[in-house]
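in:
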């Protein structure tokens, strides 16, 4: 079954909420409203056409959402992908048509606020204009698409969301059933000294870098102050802070640096560590062990997630009802994949 988000999807339990809602809203808005009729549409939904261009965009977005998935049979995967995208286009079109037939209005002030929010994601008006031109859109297109999308959201809230609730017990049950997700990973605070080695460095350049870092390590072993050496010799931006990288978890710094830092005790200095940036020395300043994330700190977020999942299920049921009353025609032949 296709997925019909009415808000940016909440992904997993360690959610990140993207600042740039531009792409998300425009994607679903593109699915929401008919393009001008073309001679050979892929499908007709209550007399409105779904085009190859719309399918191309929908498939591309689905592919981007699944970049982490490994596909071993490209043909089967592509087939299911365009079928899912086309099904989503049809469902979203039915919602848009229903919203229009219901006379759901979107205030111009809502549209103005959205446009300003979109603009704020760019470094100046020129970058904003360049972005929408690159998508072959005008600001008028964005306004109309947002109006359509907002109308669909209001329809869903009216027909589905208004009756969906999540109880305190449901939130607590979900938390208890997934406690392994609610763990703050261990952190380490470390400082480093970096001697840069260019990617195209000659053997002689690499040799000199290693000689410099070895000399610094010998000075540290004799008792020289790490922060003072970092300030004087390190070639990384943290040198002004005595090499202090602050607290970090695995994945936030180069893997060899993380491996070294997490393996050391407080006060210990690493062997020479090599990364794509160059060669480093690492000194650990503090460790924070993994810790549980308390229910109270995520209760509201969990409640929103569970409500959204309920709404998604109810929206599918609502769309199936619209389909049973709609005139839908899928044109013969297989759509061209982007």
């Amino acid at each position: 079954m296709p997925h019909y988000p009415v808000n940016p999807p909440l992904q997993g339990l360690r959610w990140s909420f993207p600042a740039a809602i531009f792409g998300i809203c425009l994607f679903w808005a593109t699915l929401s409203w008919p393009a001008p009729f073309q001679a050979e549409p892929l499908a007709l939904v209550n007399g409105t056409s779904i085009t190859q261009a719309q399918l191309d965009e929908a498939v591309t977005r689905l592919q981007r959402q699944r970049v982490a998935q490994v596909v071993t049979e490209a043909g089967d995967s592509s087939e299911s992908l365009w079928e899912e995208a086309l099904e989503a286009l049809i469902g979203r079109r039915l919602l848009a048509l229903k919203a229009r037939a219901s006379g759901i209005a979107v205030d111009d002030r809502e549209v103005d606020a959205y446009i300003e929010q979109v603009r704020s994601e760019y470094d100046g008006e020129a970058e904003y204009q360049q972005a929408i031109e690159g998508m072959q859109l005008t600001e008028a297109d964005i306004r109309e698409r947002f109006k359509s999308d907002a109308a669909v959201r209001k329809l869903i809230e009216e027909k589905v969301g208004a009756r969906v609730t999540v109880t305190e017990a449901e939130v607590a049950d979900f938390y208890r059933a997934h406690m392994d997700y609610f763990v703050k990973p261990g952190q380490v605070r470390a400082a480093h000294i970096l001697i840069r080695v260019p990617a195209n460095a000659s053997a002689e350049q690499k040799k000199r870098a290693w000689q410099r870092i070895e000399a610094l390590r010998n000075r540290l072993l004799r008792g020289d102050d790490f922060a003072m050496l970092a300030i004087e010799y390190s070639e990384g931006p943290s040198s002004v802070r005595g090499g202090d990288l602050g607290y970090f978890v695995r994945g936030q710094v180069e893997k060899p640096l993380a491996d070294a830092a997490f393996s050391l005790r407080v006060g210990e200095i690493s062997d020479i560590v090599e990364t794509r940036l160059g060669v480093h020395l690492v000194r650990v300043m503090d460790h924070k062990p993994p810790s549980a994330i308390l229910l109270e700190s995520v209760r509201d977020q969990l409640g929103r997630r569970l409500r959204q999942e309920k709404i998604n299920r109810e929206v599918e049921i609502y769309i199936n009802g619209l389909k049973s009353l709609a005139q839908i025609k899928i044109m013969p032949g297989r759509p061209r994949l982007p």
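note: The radius of gyration is 27 Å.
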